[in-house]
Amino acid sequence: MTRRALVEGVGHYLPERIVPNSEFEKTLDTSDEWIRSRSGIERRHFAADDETTSDLAMHAARAALDSAGLAPDDVDGIIVATSTPDLTFPSVATMLQQKLGMTRGFAFDLQAVCAGFVYALSTANAMILSDQAERLLVIGAETFSRIMDWTDRSTCVLFGDGAGAVVLGPGEGDGSAADRGILSSDLNSDGRYLDMLYVDGGVSTTGTAGKLRMQGNPLFRQAVEKLTTTADAALGKIGLTGQDIDWIVPHQANIRIIQGTAKKMEVPLDRVILTVQDHGNTSAASIPLALSVGVAEGRIKPGDLVLTEAIGGGLAWGSVVLRW
Ligand code: ACO
Questions:
Q1: Are residues 116 and 230 in the same domain?
Q2: 313 and 251 in one domain?
Q3: Which atom of ligand 1 lies nearest, measured to the CA of 312?
Q4: Which residue segment(s) compose the domain that 185 sits in?
Q5: Cα of 154 to ligand 1 centre, how many Å?
């Protein structure tokens, strides 16, 4: 028998405040039409002033634990993928432990910007397969609204806040691609592209959190190529191709990147979970948010083959293939 890390529960949380594209027309030289046609985004959620990343993570974690029928102390650890922590330290994950009333296990944050959730899933899978944990909460949670330059129309209209979570637990299979659980992953990064997407502040430079800076156009071109390559690599490790996929659950940065990647993989768009129109780019939260929405809508079902893929600052990119 082969050990597998199975998804036992999934949940998400979006802050109450919904901001339509038209809101930006009041302060910037932009339009609903430009934002929709260039990015696919129609609205996004922004956290309230007193709402932090760990608050969003807590709601998503509770929803995922509820859907798995588990209590916080049933998990051995928490991994939070985020680039927008409440504080420089301690980690959002330990703050979440406190908020959940969890008194055992370990908790840490992982930072790979928009690829964070894929990195976190892959890490959690490795920990479960190597017996370091039996059951883990894996979360993507972000408040990107806090690092926006509200005078920069080329970035501030693209991002949103939210959180999504999964519970990964122990499973078994025969070692084939027919098993349920995480089947393969592929992780990459290349620091030559640092300038394409970064935040212009930090602890050891400016002493401030900084604002997001992005060269959208060259990043766009890198994204389609690198996402297709990593998806093919993860699928190839288990002898599968795009034809075998039931659902692509992509990082929700831009509808045109999602369409371009699906087309290159020869996967029709009706097999792609899309939330970018409602959430904008929520960085590490976007994939678990989309997984949770896909399950809640009755689209992703047990036994379905799911491909998650993401790219973000670094550049860092990767994919995880799992059978739900
Ligand atoms: N409203 C109106 N015009 C705008 C806006 C706006 N909000 N923003 C930019 N423009 C203008 C630009 O100034 C430019 O004008 P110019 O031609 O006079 O210079 C024009 O629109 C075209 O700009 P481009 O950048 O070429 O537009 P593009 O079609 O590339 O779309 C976008 C921009 C949406 C940012 C796209 O490039 C993109 O999605 N890039 C990838 C982003 C991404 O993948 N991020 C993933 C990682 S995110 C993370 O890791 C945190």
A1: no
A2: yes
A3: 50
A4: 181-323
A5: 5
Beta bridge partners of 165: 11, 139
Strand partners, 212: 199
- Tens of pLDDT, residue by residue over 91-122, are 999 999 999 999 999 999 999 999 999 999 99
> Which residue lies with its CA nearest to atom 38 of ligand 1?
216
- Same structural domain, 41 and 113: yes
**Three-state SS for 27?**
coil
- Section 148-171 average pLDDT: 98
In this structure, the residue with its CA closest to atom 40 of ligand 1 is 216
Q: How many CB atoms lie within 10 A of CB 5?
A: 28
Active site residue 281: yes
Output the CA 161–ligand 1 centroid distance in Å.
Answer: 19
Give me the CATH number covering residue 59.
3.40.47.10
CA atoms in the 13 A half-sphere facing the CB of 155: 21
Is there a contact between 116 and 81 (Cβ–Cβ < 8 Å)?
yes
**CB of 47 within 8 A of CB of 15?**
yes
DSSP code at position 272:
B
- Please say which residue of 149, 173, 197 terminates a domain: 173
The rounded Å distance from CA 268 to ligand 1 centre is 25
